[in-house]
């Protein structure tokens, strides 16, 4: 096959692939009925006027889950996102569709969400005891306690800023008062109002009912890179220490240096080699995936010309793409685990 024919085949394939990965959204943005409730409107007005970029990122994440509803079934995503973030993402997706973009707005978030969902379930299934805990650090507007059946035997702890958790609770109460049906899928849910940048956050977690000796899955989705290097390492070290106490699984996403170093970036912490960093802290097993890998694709990235597939063909040491001179921005999805030796007795 000639190079011209091969290129034409790739372009035809990319066009077909894009049609398979588009979010199932309406041509014109329609405001969900829930967002017309007066109490909900006031809460989202407060979010827009008073929250900083880190807090608002929770609503942006919810918007992605809401508009990628053909692959993510989140009953609270529209409510948590609010009209502003939904409308903004809807506009970006429509623009991508008109331009036949190779990477659709929100696809990273969709893949990331699905990866965390599947790994949470796998981690819980790997434990040899029904007594399990799941800790969501920087939980934001996460609704897994209302949508993942795999949490039905787990005590879930959501850790975040007090105002974020209070607003989240108020939004849920508004939904319930409007006769929306809502059922918790987790065994229990405890909100822990604290800033994980503070040194006493773990003590507050324990005072809220967390038991260090029980098998635990720690979920750090979309949070590490907002922390300073010192703050992120303190969190990772603390979790790693739990491997000597009980079966511990860490699920986290890491940015590489080019991702955190873009102009006007709000990100700080990065790791080019988290699969080397985490074993040095005490985790015994580490598995790293990139967006587009077989376990981090979910049928949403068929286009062979998209950014993620192009990056997979380059060595991880590459900082600049040789074809166009752009930074090689990577997002690593990492699962790390550890357990005490089988013969070690645990003292309470």
Question: How does this model look, in words?
Answer:
This protein has 348 residues and is of the alpha/beta class. The chain has eleven helices and seven strands. The chain has helices at 3-21, 38-50, 53-67, 77-98, 107-126, 162-177, 201-207, 229-241, 257-260, 274-281, 307-312, and strands spanning 132-137, 154-160, 188-193, 215-220, 248-255, 285-290, 331-338. A seven-stranded mixed beta sheet has the order 3-2-1-4-5-7-6, sandwiched between helices. Helix 2 packs antiparallel against helix 6 and helix 3 (53-67) packs across helix 4 (77-98). The protein is globular and about 60 Å long. The N and C termini lie far apart (68 Å). InterPro entries: Ppm1/Ppm2/Tcmp, SAM-dependent_MTases_sf, SAM_mthyl_Trfase_ML2640-like. Belongs to the UPF0677 family. Keywords: Methyltransferase, Transferase. This is Leucine carboxyl methyltransferase. GO terms for molecular function: methyltransferase activity.
Name its key features:
single chain; 348 residues; alpha/beta; seven-stranded mixed sheet; 7 strands
Strand and helix layout:
Blueprint: H1 3-21, H2 38-50, H3 53-67, H4 77-98, H5 107-126, E1 132-137, E2 154-160, H6 162-177, E3 188-193, H7 201-207, E4 215-220, H8 229-241, E5 248-255, H9 257-260, H10 274-281, E6 285-290, H11 307-312, E7 331-338
Parallel strand pairs: 1-2, 1-4, 2-3, 4-5
Antiparallel strand pairs: 5-7, 6-7
Helix pairs in contact: 2-4, 2-6, 3-4
């Amino acid at each position: 096959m000639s190079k011209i024919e091969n290129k034409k085949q790739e372009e035809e394939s990319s066009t077909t692939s894009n049609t398979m990965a588009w979010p199932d959204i309406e041509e014109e943005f329609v405001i969900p009925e829930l967002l017309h409730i007066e109490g909900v409107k006031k809460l989202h007005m407060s979010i827009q006027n008073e929250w900083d970029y880190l807090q608002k990122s929770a609503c942006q994440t919810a918007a992605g889950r809401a508009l990628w509803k053909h692959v993510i079934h989140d009953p609270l995503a529209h409510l948590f996102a609010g009209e502003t973030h939904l409308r903004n993402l809807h506009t970006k997706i429509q623009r991508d569709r008109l331009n036949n973009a190779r990477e659709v707005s929100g696809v990273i978030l969709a893949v990331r969400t699905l990866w965390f969902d599947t790994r949470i379930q796998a981690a819980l299934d790997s434990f040899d005891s029904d007594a399990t805990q799941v800790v969501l650090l920087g939980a934001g507007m996460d609704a897994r306690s209302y949508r993942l059946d795999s949490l039905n035997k787990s005590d879930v702890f959501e850790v975040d800023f007090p105002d974020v958790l209070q607003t989240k609770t108020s939004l849920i109460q508004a939904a319930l008062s409007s006769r929306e049906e809502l059922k918790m899928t987790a065994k229990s849910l405890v909100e822990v109002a604290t800033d994980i940048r503070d040194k006493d956050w773990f003590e507050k977690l324990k005072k809220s009912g967390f038991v260090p000796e029980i098998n635990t899955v720690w979920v750090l989705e979309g949070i590490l890179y907002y922390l300073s290097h010192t703050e992120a390492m303190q969190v990772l070290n603390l979790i790693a220490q739990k491997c000597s106490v009980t079966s511990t699984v860490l699920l986290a996403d890491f940015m590489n240096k080019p991702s955190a170093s873009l102009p006007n970036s709000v990100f700080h912490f990065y790791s080019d080699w988290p699969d080397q960093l985490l074993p040095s802290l005490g985790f015994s097993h580490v598995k790293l995936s990139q967006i587009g890998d077989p376990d981090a694709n979910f049928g949403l990235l068929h286009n062979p010309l998209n950014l993620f597939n192009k990056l997979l063909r380059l060595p991880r040491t590459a900082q600049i793409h040789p074809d166009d001179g752009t930074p090689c921005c990577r997002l690593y999805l990492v699962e790390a685990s550890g357990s005490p030796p089988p013969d070690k007795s645990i003292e309470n």
